[in-house]
Write the structure tokens for this entry.
Amino acid sequence: MRIGELARRTGASPRALRHYETAGLIASERAANGYRVYGDGAVTRVANIRYLLAAGLTLDDVSAFRSCLDGDMPSAPPSARGLEIARERLAVLDARIAAQTEARDRLARSLAVESGR
């Protein structure tokens, strides 16, 4: 299937698909006209990539799962490395949330002071 069909079947944009390919997460063949052609397995692979990205992992994190992107990832038990990556990503997200909460609270305090004048 060509990139447009893969995009329609997965909900990923053609640009994202090219990005996944550049990162080595999906592969395509080139047709005689130069178009990218993906196998049917690319649908599952892209769905799993999107699942991991939606869970807060980065594309670099997803690379560690390259060997298991073709299976039923959401129902498979996580590997030790997968758990390690998830814990690291959770710590990063927690730190970002804390920083954003502090910034929000600072702004709210500033507005409260201004509205009290």
Observations:
- The chain has a mean pLDDT of 92.
